[in-house]
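Q: What does the predicted 3D structure of SAM-dependent methyltransferase look like?
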Amino acid sequence: MKTSNHRNSSDIDIIGNACRDYFNHPDEDLKIEVWSDIAETDYIPVHYLFRPYTDMPVLEQKALAECRGKVLDIGAGAGSHALWLQERNIEVTALEISPGACEIMKKRGVKEILQEDFFELPESEKYDTLLLLMNGTGIIGSISRMKKFFEKAKSLLKPGGQILVDSSDLRYLFLQDDGSILINLNDKYYGEVEYRMSYKRQKGRRFPWLFIDDQLLEYHANKNSFSFERIAEGEHFDYLARLIEKD
């Protein structure tokens, strides 16, 4: 019988498989290999997806503190953010496309879980906070999908609701020795990245991921009738923003 290595890459649940392995064998040094078209191959230690609040970056801690009302944790992964909110009696639903990650979240004790693509999520429920962390703008994929993102967000937010989202400005990758920044303005936006994850010799599909600088996010927020507030900055060109639909 053929192994899963021969399955179509679009069928392989890289995040889910890694989460299952770590949940069952937390002492193993497990890593997800991450290829991108913009930088050298990197690795995500799987234990990072299970990190407690004390090991989270300051931007994530700040975002959790700013959550209010009914929260939708978008791209919840192994559920670390949802668990922290849940423990503080904040009503939270964990949204995650990976079936394996959803399985592990349930085992970890996350009460409300939705296995779905954000853009395909039914609009029957409304939320006070949409939470998107670990470069939350990534799910948008490209600048051309900003309008679609904001339209979906509007359909899911209660009146006065907020989006809490983090991202990074990748222009530092184009920094020259003389301090100048060399970016081809005729090419795609420099924060549009293509990724591919691999785990234990299994390769997932390629997918687009968006890093957006704060000024461009503010422009698109205003263009789509949202206000923009930068509420925290990180140490690696990253930031946390609050977006609220204008009256």
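A (community wiki): The structure tokens above were generated from the sequence. Residues 1-9 have pLDDT under 50 and may be disordered. The first strand starts at residue 31 and ends at 36.
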